[in-house]
């Protein structure tokens, strides 16, 4: 069904190691035809990173390629198989139900990247789904991925969004779209679970060896427990970064956790407004399993599922294997706390290490909770307090200020131990406490303008602002303002299906 076009009109230089080396881990599959592909969004900066000649891309041929209608030379489209624990329940066979991996390219930094179409039609893993995606959720994924990237958080990114020219049917008919996703790889904890749950130990070993070569080359030749520890370290670091900017993933199923350590699947994700660890935005997360404050615990739970898949490789003696895995999983807490504390010290303006720093950080957040303070602005305005102006910080409180009033002088005394100029401390703090993040009510507004009124200017402006989240400036001021309490109260997110 797909046309193959001559080389030179697209410049992907594919080198498809997953497809070549992991026979049995995917199904060969073609995209469904899109009736009338039309450009919606193209990520020039990312295209440059991939070494693409971007001048040829804004063409109709480009739209045909990124809708799946035309197969670029060297692409071998596959749907990858995986399993996964979804909200704690195991599904033995999920797989790419609406995605196709076109192949891998080596970017300009020498890094191998997956190029994947999402929303390109049914695959052998679609179950009852249509394999399609609506334009709104695909633009949301584009926006959130870019925001995370510019915040400095490891993430998959979107290269393109193309409208397909057909409707997809959800509660109502919605315009369909295909997103092109770029990822370090799409190997998930669920990929390991798929083979382990079938007792296919040889496939688990092949996958582990492949993953080590691709993402943990420093561990080649070491024992598999080192691999488990490496994966744990990366996830601990990732989730600590989320916690520092108030990011709530929303659907941390094991099939949405990548071995590369990148954030993936921006379905129901959202950023905190005021600090409350129990915050949940997702309409399907009834019990708050993936609440903001639960994310480290869930990451550890997912990693335990990962370690279980490798048990037969850890030791011939199964008791010993369980012991090794348990010790590794238990080390998550310490690794996470260390990563979190390192970041928290920087957020608080601290370079020295003092014993009570973790407590000081947590007490600041307790004060934010009591005071119903906006999470992002409270951290941001703490830099002014470092320069002896507590007014901007105090202005973001909407509730009880007893705790923050008691906390500020203690933090000031701790800062005094730093023996650094206040301006220098404040400047360092502003480099790690963002001024803008994609605020939920604004995300909804710009997506509504794009999908309902076909007006992409607000989305493009927001993307422009989010390219530089750490600089306070006039052009970003409106984006930095918290939602009104009515806007914040009704915010709900939905899965992008
Ligand atoms: P997600 O919630 O996007 O992580 O997807 C969970 C699983 O559902 C994956 O196996 C997806 O491929 C599958 N899935 C999600 N949406 C669709 C769809 N529209 N058609 C087919 N499969 C889907
Ligand atoms: Mg997923």
In total, the number of strands is 13
Assembly status: single chain
Bound molecules: adenosine monophosphate, magnesium ion
* Estimated share of beta-strand residues: 5-15%
Low-confidence stretches: 5-9
Biggest beta-sheet profile: 5 strands, antiparallel
Can you give the mean pLDDT?
95
**Shape from CA axes?**
globular
Strand order of the largest sheet: 3-10-11-9-8
Structural class: alpha+beta
Radius of gyration over C-alpha positions, nearest whole angstrom: 23 Å
Q: Domains counted in the coordinates: how many?
A: 3
Alpha plus pi helix count: 19
End-to-end separation in angstroms reads 25 Å
Question: Helicity, in percent?
Answer: 40-55%
Task: Outline the fold blueprint.
Blueprint: E1 3-4, H1 17-21, E2 26-28, E3 38-42, H2 44-49, H3 60-67, E4 70-71, E5 78-80, E6 84-86, E7 89-91, E8 99-106, E9 112-118, H4 135-151, E10 157-169, E11 173-183, H5 189-197, H6 201-215, H7 224-245, E12 247-248, E13 270-271, H8 295-309, H9 311-314, H10 318-348, H11 357-370, H12 375-386, H13 391-395, H14 402-416, H15 422-432, H16 440-452, H17 457-466, H18 477-480, H19 485-489
Parallel strand pairs: 1-4
Antiparallel strand pairs: 2-5, 3-10, 6-7, 8-9, 9-11, 10-11, 12-13
Description:
This protein has 497 residues and is α+β, with helices and mostly antiparallel strands. It folds into three domains: 3-186, no CATH class; 197-268 and 288-340, no CATH class; 348-497, no CATH class. It has helices at residues 17-21, 44-49, 60-67, 135-151, 189-197, 201-215, 224-245, 295-309, 311-314, 318-348, 357-370, 375-386, 391-395, 402-416, 422-432, 440-452, 457-466, 477-480, 485-489, and strands at residues 3-4, 26-28, 38-42, 70-71, 78-80, 84-86, 89-91, 99-106, 112-118, 157-169, 173-183, 247-248, 270-271. The strands form five sheets. A five-stranded antiparallel sheet has the order 3-10-11-9-8, with helices on both faces. It has a two-stranded parallel ribbon with strand order 1-4. It binds adenosine monophosphate and magnesium ion. The site of magnesium ion has 3 residues, from loops.
């Amino acid at each position: 069904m797909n046309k193959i076009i001559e080389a030179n009109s697209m410049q992907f230089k594919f080198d498809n190691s997953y497809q070549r080396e992991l026979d049995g881990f995917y199904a060969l599959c073609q995209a469904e035809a899109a009736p009338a592909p039309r450009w919606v969004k193209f990520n020039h900066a990312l295209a440059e990173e991939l070494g693409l000649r971007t001048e040829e891309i804004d063409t109709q041929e480009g739209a045909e390629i990124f809708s799946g209608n035309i197969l670029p030379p060297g692409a071998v489209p596959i749907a990858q198989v995986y399993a996964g624990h979804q909200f704690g329940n195991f599904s033995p066979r999920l797989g790419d139900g609406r995605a196709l991996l076109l192949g891998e390219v080596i970017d300009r930094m020498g890094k191998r990247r997956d190029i994947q179409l999402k929303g390109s039609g049914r695959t052998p893993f679609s179950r009852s789904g249509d394999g399609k995606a609506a334009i709104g959720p695909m633009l949301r994924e584009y926006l959130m991925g870019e925001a995370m990237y510019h915040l400095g958080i490891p993430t998959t990114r979107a290269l393109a969004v193309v409208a397909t020219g057909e409707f997809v049917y959800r509660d109502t008919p919605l315009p369909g779209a295909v997103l092109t996703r770029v990822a370090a790889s799409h190997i998930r904890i669920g990929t390991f679970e798929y083979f382990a749950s079938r007792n296919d130990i040889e496939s688990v070993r092949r996958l582990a060896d492949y993953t080590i070569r691709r993402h943990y080359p420093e561990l080649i030749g070491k024992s598999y427990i080192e691999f488990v520890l490496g994966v744990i370290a990366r996830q601990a670091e990732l989730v600590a970064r989320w916690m520092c900017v108030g990011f709530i993933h929303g659907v941390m199923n094991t099939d949405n956790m990548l071995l590369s350590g990148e954030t993936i699947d921006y379905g129901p994700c959202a950023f905190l407004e005021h600090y409350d660890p129990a915050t949940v935005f997702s309409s399907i997360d009834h019990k708050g399993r993936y609440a903001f404050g639960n994310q480290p615990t869930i990451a550890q739970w997912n990693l335990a599922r990962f370690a279980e898949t490798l048990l037969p490789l850890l030791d011939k003696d199964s008791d010993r294997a369980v012991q090794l895995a348990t010790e590794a999983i238990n080390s998550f807490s310490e690794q996470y706390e260390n990563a979190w504390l390192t970041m928290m010290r920087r957020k608080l303006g601290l370079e020295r290490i003092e014993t009570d720093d973790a407590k000081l950080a947590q007490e600041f957040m307790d004060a934010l909770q009591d005071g119903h303070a906006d999470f992002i602005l409270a951290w941001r305005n703490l830099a002014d307090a470092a320069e002896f102006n507590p007014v901007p910080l105090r202005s973001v409180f909407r509730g009880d200020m007893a705790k923050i009033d008691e906390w500020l002088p203690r933090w000031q005394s701790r800062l005094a131990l730093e023996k650094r100029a206040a301006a220098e401390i404040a400047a360092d703090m502003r480099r790690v406490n963002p001024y803008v993040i994609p605020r939920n009510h604004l995300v909804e507004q710009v997506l509504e303008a794009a999908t309902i009124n076909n007006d992409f200017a607000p989305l493009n402006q927001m993307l422009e602002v989010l390219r530089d989240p750490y600089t306070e400036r006039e052009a970003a001021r409106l984006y930095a303002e918290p939602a009104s309490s009515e806007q914040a109260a009704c915010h709900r997110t939905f899965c992008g299906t």
